[in-house]
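Q: Predict the assembly, please.
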Amino acid sequence: MLRPLLVVALPALLVSAWWIASDGSTAVYWPPLRTILKTFPDVWTGERLRTDVLPSVLRLLAGYASAAVAGVALGTVIGSYRRVRAFCEPALEFLRAVPPPVLVPVIMLFAGIGDTMKIVVIASGCLWPVLLNTVEGVRAVDSVMAETARSYGVTGAARLRHVVLRSASPQIFAGLRQALSIGLILMVISEMFAASNGLGFAIVQFQRGFAIPDMWTGILVLGLLGLLLSVVFQFVERRALGWYHGLRESSRRSP
Amino acid sequence: MRGTDTALGAAGLAVLLALGEAAPRLGLVKEAYFPPTSRIAAALGREAGDGAFWTALGDTLTGWALGLTAAVVASVAVGLVVSVVPYLREATASTIEFLRPIPSVALIPLAVLLYGTELRSVLLLVVYASFWQVLVQVLYGVRDVDPVAEETARSYGLGPWARTRHVLWPTALPYVMTGVRLAAAVALILAVTAELVIGAPGLGARIAVAQASQAVPDLYALVVVTGLLGLLINGGARAVERRALAWHQSVRGEVAV
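A: Predicted assembly structure:
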């Protein structure tokens, strides 16, 4: 009874505080929440959803998916062979340390300012957390389990799928989660740089045109998008890692 | 074993650099897009001789350090209060989960309007982004407190302050340190991003200028500098972590191996 109440209490309190505090606001940059919410449906109708939100989300998904596939594939190879790992590690550490947004100008040189550039930017930022976490995960495969699988003759694709990737999957998901927020950031930045559509583009347009309430609705949309992605991710993770969470829960209860 | 690993790693770096030199020279990639390593190195030398470069580096580091410090102090304070006061944790959970995924770059237009290209714009983004990294870690860390230790401290008559100091804090510290390490990297990303997009003075702004003036080798040189900075920050954060947690199992175990 108390719990659901607690969950909604603070958000409700904060929103009403914002509403009341900004109600009589005449400050140009802090429009009343009333105005922002009234502007919201006008700005984000079907037309803009199709021309701005949809392309943004598609780019994000394309970049994220290619980074996930490449990261897991490369990470498995690098993680499986000790020498390859030693060979690549310093170079990888350096490449990962480069803040992803500074790659936007570099990638613009190669790929121009089209969709390809944005997808490459998103993928190049998302790749590292997935790659490095996969390497760590593959490396940490339980040696008893690996030996058991070998002695039962589980090799090749079956070994990869059921032993290596399965036992690395908690780590891989940790990487995928980090990559998600990086991908979102890079999506917005690449669109702020050079674009003719997309969420980042729209928000900057509003700001430059001093359409302040519209700009605020854009910030809200990005927040909602971030929230939606993280909820979807949590759902997928819970399905995929159900066995793992269950295992941890039971080992915690009986140490 | 260790020696061969280091040698292999050095070989890997050398191959990377050699590829960077050979590919444009052999015409595999266009030199205008991808200058050979030697020209990037020359540009790096040119930058290092330029006073404006060091000012930019200083600006970036100032934004990074101030933002990170503010975020860590605020998130540790908030995290401890939220987890110590009954019910506050459950009451804030949904709000934290809602605010956390908001990408900090969404605040760029707001920062531009409020502060223009001042340092405060950078700080707004850096603090917002790093705050959540540490806060979530603090919350996890406090939840990990051993109930037996907590009860023992209670039965010995330790007050709330002493319990926080001697039971809660040591338990949470490894988590906090992980959070600080993550936040240090995030703070650098956001500091450079803010400079790049907003134009606040710093390395990011210098990259934007290099791009606009088609100074491609300089562009690459500056990107390399941000990468080195990232490495330094990561290494530094790990060193701090090791010192602060010298007593902790994870670090002691590391040394013994």
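Chain A touches chain B through 55 residues (CB under 8 Å). Chain A has a mean pLDDT of 85.
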